[in-house]
Amino acid sequence: MSMLSIHRRAALGLIGGLAAVCAGALSTLPARADSTVTLWSWRTEDEAAMHRIFEAFEKKNPGIKVDIQFTPDADYQNRLSTALRGGRGPDIAQLKAYGELQPFIEGGYLDALDDSVAELKNMPDAALGGARGRADGKLYGVPYSVPMMGVFYNEDIFAAQGIDIPKTYKDFVAACEKLKAAGITPIANGGANGSAWELEIGVGVIGPTLYGPGFYDEMMSGKATFEDPRYVAALKRFAELKPYYSDGFAGIDYTTATQQFIGGKAAMFFGGSFENGSFKSQNPKLKFSIFPFPADDASTKLYTSAFSDGSYGLVSESQNKEAAIKVLNYMASAEFAQAFADELGWPPARTDVTVKDPVLARMMEMAKNSTPYLTLVGFRWQTPTASSVLQSEIIDMVEGNVAPEKLAADMQAAVATWFKPKQ
Amino acid sequence: MTKLRRTTSLQRTQQRMAVLFILPALAIYGLFVLYPLLLSLWGSFFTWKGLRMQEFAGLANFSRLFVFPSGARLYGALWHNVAWFFGIMLLQNGLGLLFAWLLFLRGRGAAFFQSVFFFPAVLSPVIVGALWRLLLAPGGIVEWALNGLGLHQGSLTVLGNSHTALGTLIAVDAWNWMGLPVLIYTAGLRQISPQVFEAAKLDGAGNARMLFSVALPLLMPALGTLTTLSFINTFNQFDIVYVMQGVQGNPSYATDTLVTYFYRLAFGAEGAVGITDIGLALALGTMLFLVLSIGTLLMLRFFDKRTVEL
To answer: Hey, which end of chain A has fewer CB within 10 Å, N or C?
Structure first.
């Protein structure tokens, strides 16, 4: 509590939404030449790589400068919506996917790109799905990546302990036991202090091995719910691996968990493919790769959860649309996808790239059998989202304070307030 | 007569001047506090789509606040705020009184200890939150100390445990602001004339008796100020939760407060960053405003009645 800031905090508590408008009106933008296209992104991790990618573009288009500004993910959405409401947004904005994109479309802050960016036709639907307006079916962004998820593993540790990539869930548990006996953390995992999205990804890694590739459609048509035994089994499996998670699981956050893996203290990590580039840049010596989480039976075909991470959209109020559309066309090109794959090591939105990075090659191979990342693609359209319930209760579930059945029931009750199955 | 008239006209001129002098501050206050406040009250009666105000909805936003799925969040957050208020009254203002009394009795070195108590208050709550997050992490200093003393075994996960998280945050908040009650009570104690304490001593009162029967009634204005401040601040509690547990009030909403809930509705939550419900947020903001205004008025009246005049 602070004496001096009572007014400020009362104002924050009461008028957040509108105080934001004032803040937006006060934010200053540098004066800029007409040919400078501003681009906002939340991927602070990729700053250096993004600058390199756009240097190539600027060389080919001498009249256009791209000014990329990064805001940390936690504040990005807030900053963008404030700026758009105040008419002070960028020319091009990085946008979240699926349901989180809709408010910007409904508010009329974005231009549809179906006609102005021809290259969108050459992108797979898995990528485009996240950039579509729900009401009109038009495309409001240029997707950049279709991440998938799997188990990252430290190749050196596996070799030193004589562990092969597990073929069945039983093998997986045996490998964890072996690692634990050797004093190595088997799986770096944690979602404390508001980073529980990482645990949701963990469920995304394990889920498809238990509910299979057809489950998404069953959920969408209303045939299945979150209380389906197959989904509950996925939650149970995530919880029963607790003995192999980082020591002090309930207090470990995402950053700590990644550091344990990058530093070679942990053998495995449940993660999205977007970790590839940042793992490499943080520890170039780390020898790691990725494998799909195994099913009970070695003969089961393994599917991986995939989703469109987001897109880059054109802000309606941009004063510089011609140049911005040029930039967006470049971002939709095969050339950009290639640079994106080489620089960042994520699966790009386009599949017509040659992959040099062995880990990325493994990912693209795994992504051939993919199923939509259930909680994001299917149930992040309105609040309360399935994700918000899952992220809140999952630590308690792993700790044994909440039963998996109860968590599944809470998720179902929350989405039932708005979700209408498609018949 | 003439003299009298002159003074009144002078007074009138002074009053007019006073109004002129207030104007700039009033204009700024009106623009940045009153105007947005009224706008948000107004907005709470409309439906919102995404970021834009749509049609008039009457009290629909308010009735939605109390039913599923919002109801559970609202009551949970309200209860946490109430618990926070009582926790702060006990840990911060109660202990603060004790420390202030001990410093007052000791006399020597009081200024030094006052500064020590006040030090955390100069840090931003954001820094305090981040600091304690590090200290309380598994493998952190607090775990090492507790294990060394044999008070605890294994990893310390108080922040990840839904039974202990809220209490831990309240304790951190109390640590942050401990200096304030110490400062205010010490100032209050110094204002009490020494004869009062001497008289009590002669009547055979011990230190504890003197604190509760003599000092405390005379400290009523200080206690009233602190209670009111604590009430306003605990019901606006946001920063420590945001930094230490995220905006969801994790784990399992165990540390969710009214303002973190408001933030999620207005700006989006984890797992739904871009999906907001501004109508519901403004209704909650309006409710919070009413609760705080009425609560503060009641408290001020309560302590006004109980002020002892010597």
So the answer is: C
